[in-house]
Structures are given as structure tokens and as C-alpha cells.
TrEMBL record:
Cofactor: Mg(2+)
PANTHER family xref list: INOSITOL MONOPHOSPHATASE, INOSITOL-1-MONOPHOSPHATASE-RELATED
UniProt cross-references to CDD domains, sorted A to Z: IMPase
EC assignment: 3.1.3.25
Gene Ontology BP terms: inositol metabolic process; phosphatidylinositol phosphate biosynthetic process; signal transduction; transcription antitermination
Record Gene3D superfamilies: 3.40.190.80, Fructose-1,6-Bisphosphatase, subunit A, domain 1
SUPFAM superfamilies: Carbohydrate phosphatase (SSF56655)
Protein name in UniProt: Inositol-1-monophosphatase
Catalysed reaction equations from the record: a myo-inositol phosphate + H2O = myo-inositol + phosphate
Binding site for Mg(2+): 67, 83, 85-86, 211
UniProt similarity note: Belongs to the inositol monophosphatase superfamily.
Purpose of the protein: Part of the processive rRNA transcription and antitermination complex (rrnTAC). The complex forms an RNA-chaperone ring around the RNA exit tunnel of RNA polymerase (RNAP). It supports rapid transcription and antitermination of rRNA operons, cotranscriptional rRNA folding, and annealing of distal rRNA regions to allow correct ribosome biogenesis. This subunit may play a central role in organizing the structure.
Length: 263
């Protein structure tokens, strides 16, 4: 295994352990509102510190970009992108769906990615060119060949500045024929579910780099496709993400085209 992937897994598990510990005492946590409906707790910060400390000890020359602490460390070709707790709202409301997401970029290119679900003890991991795994076993995107009975994941906009009307139009064109739509609440895990074939596809607008960095590599290494809603390569910068197995991806893109033409 890629040694940096091994470290990333170790860091995500240690951070996940801290999250698990606090999951039983959520009522005691002080919750801050970063922005409208955007919560952060000391758990987010502690989990991030735990992950960064472990990685920094191993790689003192690397740079870090964490959701809670921003950019730190020296200028480096290596940059770790970390969402210490993806799904904070679920965590706070007692819904057992959240994750730790850790990715490594080398010269701007994703090279390692881990999404860890601390409650199910599921580790989704990928290294560029080496495939994707779930708890050490190889995973691939689903084999479904059309939207017929496809199960799709999504994120419904809830922030004030998001375009709910546009989202509702995409929902309207993507729902027909499917087996249904799920909104689990952790985008990193949603992407891991596409990579492992649990979801046939996924779309969401306005995500951040830390939500998706690990998931993007998982999808690519599991044989899936990922882009923005136009099929272009801007998903990392715009946070508008469409991901699926290649056949479902093509159909989703086709259905989205008339809606997205105006945007
Ligand atoms: C959130 C989750 C959620 C997505 C939000 C993200 P956070 O991350 O990924 O699924 O819909 O846009 O902000 O804030 O819990 O780390
Ligand atoms: Ca997140
Ligand atoms: Ca987070």
C-alpha cells in the first residue's frame, strides 16, 4: 500500500475515534453557527487537530488545508485536504451518518484519498493508479446500465445563498425512472457510496474542496466519472458535482443539459 495512504487511513481512524467518543454526549457540546445553518463544534476542531498532528509528525514539510484551521504549514508540492467531520448536522441531531475525509494532493493532483465512517468502521480508500478499496477489499462503481431503477444520492441546498430553484429543476429531470433519491447528509460518504456501487449516481451544488477531494479520487479509481453539471472539469473549484458510473453519468448529463444551458 502507498505509505501516505497508510498514514491517511491512520489519521482518519484516530480522528474518527474522537468523533465516536463524543457521539454519545452531543447534548453537552457547545454549538457555534459559522453561518446560517452551518454548525461547528469542538469535535470538528479536535478531530482536525488530531489528524493534522499525526500527519505533520510524519510529514513536517507538507502543507495542510483543513476546513476548520485553513491553510497551514510550509509551501510544499504536497498538500493534505481535510474535512474532519463531514455531516456535522447529522452528528448534532443524532443521525448516524457522518465521516472523516482526508486527501493528499501532489503538485495539485489528487494522489491519495480516504473517507472513514467511524460508526460503521468503514474505510474507503484510494491511491492514484492503485484502485479503490472498502476495508481492504477492491470496490467498483455499479454496473447499472441506465437510469431505470438507479438509486441516486444528492444534497439539497439549505444555505441562504444557494439557488434552490435551479436545484429543484435538476431534481425534476433526474427523478423519473429511478428507484429513488437519497439525501444522507455527508457528501464525502455519498461519493464513497457511488465508488462502492451503493449509489448509481450523485449530484450536489456548492460543495467545498474538503468535502469532495477524497471522494473524487475514490470515484475515479473505482471506474466512475465525475465532473461539474456541464460535464466539465471544474468540480473541484466550483463544488458543483455530478458523479456516477459511466453509463448513468451519461444519462444524468443528458437530462441536466436543458436545465443547465441557462447557467
Ligand atoms: C456538509 C455535508 C452535506 C452537504 C453540505 C456540507 P459539513 O458538510 O457534506 O452533505 O450537503 O453542503 O457542507 O458542513 O457537515 O462538513
Ligand atoms: Ca463537509
Ligand atoms: Ca466538516
Amino acid at each position: 500500500m502507498h505509505p501516505m495512504l497508510r498514514k491517511a487511513i491512520e489519521a482518519s481512524r484516530l480522528a474518527g475515534e474522537a468523533i465516536r467518543h463524543y457521539a454519545n454526549q452531543v447534548q453537552k457540546l457547545d454549538v457555534e453557527n459559522k453561518a446560517h445553518n452551518d454548525f461547528v463544534t469542538k469535535v470538528d476542531r479536535e478531530a482536525e487537530n488530531i489528524a493534522i498532528r499525526l500527519l505533520q509528525r510524519a510529514y513536517p514539510d507538507h502543507a495542510f488545508f483543513g476546513e476548520e484551521t485553513g491553510k497551514q504549514g510550509p509551501d510544499s508540492d504536497y498538500e493534505w485536504v481535510i474535512d474532519p467531520l463531514d455531516g456535522t448536522t447529522n452528528f448534532l441531531y443524532g443521525i448516524p451518518q457522518f465521516s472523516v475525509s482526508i486527501a493528499l494532493k501532489y503538485k495539485g493532483r489528487l494522489s491519495v484519498g480516504v473517507v472513514y465512517d467511524p460508526l460503521r468502521d468503514e474505510t474507503f480508500a484510494a491511491a492514484r493508479g492503485e484502485g479503490a478499496t472498502l476495508n481492504g477489499r477492491r470496490i467498483r462503481v455499479s454496473e447499472r446500465s441506465s437510469m431505470q431503477n438507479a438509486l441516486l444520492g444528492t444534497g439539497i441546498p439549505f444555505r441562504a445563498n444557494q439557488n434552490l430553484d435551479l436545484y429543484l429543476q435538476t431534481l425534476k429531470v433526474l427523478v423519473p425512472d429511478t428507484a429513488g433519491i437519497r439525501r444522507p447528509g455527508s457528501a464525502a460518504l455519498d461519493l464513497a457510496y457511488v465508488a462502492s456501487g451503493r449509489f448509481d449516481g450523485f449530484w450536489e451544488f456548492g460543495l467545498n474542496e474538503w468535502d469532495i477531494a477524497a471522494g473524487v479520487l475514490l470515484i475515479q479509481e473505482a471506474g466512475g466519472l465525475i465532473s461539474d453539471m456541464h460535464g466539465n472539469n471544474t468540480h473541484m473549484s466550483t463544488g458543483n458535482v455530478l458523479a456516477a458510473n459511466p453509463k448513468v453519468f451519461k444519462e444524468m448529463l443528458k437530462r441536466l443539459h436543458p436545465v443547465m444551458q441557462k447557467y
